[in-house]
Amino acid sequence: MTLDIIRHRLHNQLLSQTKYTRPGQVVEWLGAVQSQDYAGAKWALAQRLRDATTDAEMDKAFNKGRFLRTHVMRPTWHFVSPKDIRWLLMLTGPRVHAGNAYMYRKLELDKAALRKSYRVMEKVLQANKQLTRSELGAAFEKAGIHAEGQRLGYFMMSAELDGVICSGGRKGKQFTYALLEERAPQVRPLTRDEALTELVRRYFTTRGPATLQDFTWWSGLTMADARKGIQAVKSHLVSEVWNDQTYWLANSVSPAREKSPAAHLLPNYDEYFIGFKDRSAIGEVARLAGIRPDDPSLIAHIILLDGQIVGGWRRTVTKNAVILERNIFTDLTRAQERALAREVDRYSEFLQLPVELI
User: Fold this and answer.
1) What are the pLDDT digits (tens) for 212-264?
2) Do 268 and 238 have their domain in common?
3) What is the CATH number of the domain that holds 160?
4) Could you identify which of 9, 32, 159, 236 might form a hypothetical disulfide with 78, taking C-beta atoms 3.0 to 4.6 angstroms apart as the criterion?
5) Rounded alpha-carbon distances, angstroms, from residue 31 to 45, 201, 205, 207, 356
6) What pTM was computed for the model?
């Protein structure tokens, strides 16, 4: 079953094949893509496109709002589709608010303070204005709202969760905020049950085989929600028991095996591993090599060969080149080295910079 898990996940996550040509299509397929590391998340999308693209092209798509960045599900940044953002926030926002409740109290962010901050944002961002966090902080201070450090951050997160603001285009290297009403088209609203059904369907279609525990970890929803959602989409899924765990995946034709060896330089927080609570299926090589998940050999990002973690990598960007440091914990064949070299070349093309490998 382990090899089947890997083959299906590589296929369903668009790493072994893809028909998509635009990053917004990938985001919509996956439902949400973790993106607190913006540079890494752009590379994650690029690897799932049929045609080669560049980092600059990804920035252009983001600035145009082809995909948005906001706090949703677990309290962290995700790329989401403009068509999906409202129902995702409606479904998962209350759970994140509940998780933030202690910090709201600690920072004295009661309902009156939050409502006042929303009015300020709606005023200064109207007519498609897009402001940075520090610019919004200055607007808060002008309106008599003390907002700096963590307090400002939680003002912003609350407004995201309540659908007041989302990402705007970047100003240089700085992120901006825009009004959600002006950034995302209105779509037919979903009921909570409809939204839950859609999220469960999309998760197990794009990340299966996966367990209910994997889904609750990824979504931040409860096990009761997971079970309810599974019942609603059961006719579209199949299940298989392995190691006393029930795995669910889309009821579709088994994917063809990817040409071997196949290498991937995955960024930190890539959905291939961050989308699961149990990542043991892709850690067999690491386990046999005595590598723990927190081992420093994994560095920051992950190297895959045929779907298995075989090492880590990190980059240092200079003005004229990228220094790519890799740390492999298993012996590679010449064919595997060539596959990895091709992936390094692909990354170089994406960044439009030469890559020096150490």
Assistant:
1) 999 999 999 999 999 999 999 999 999 999 888 999 999 876 776 778 899 99
2) no
3) 1.10.10.10
4) 32
5) 12, 10, 10, 10, 34
6) 0.95
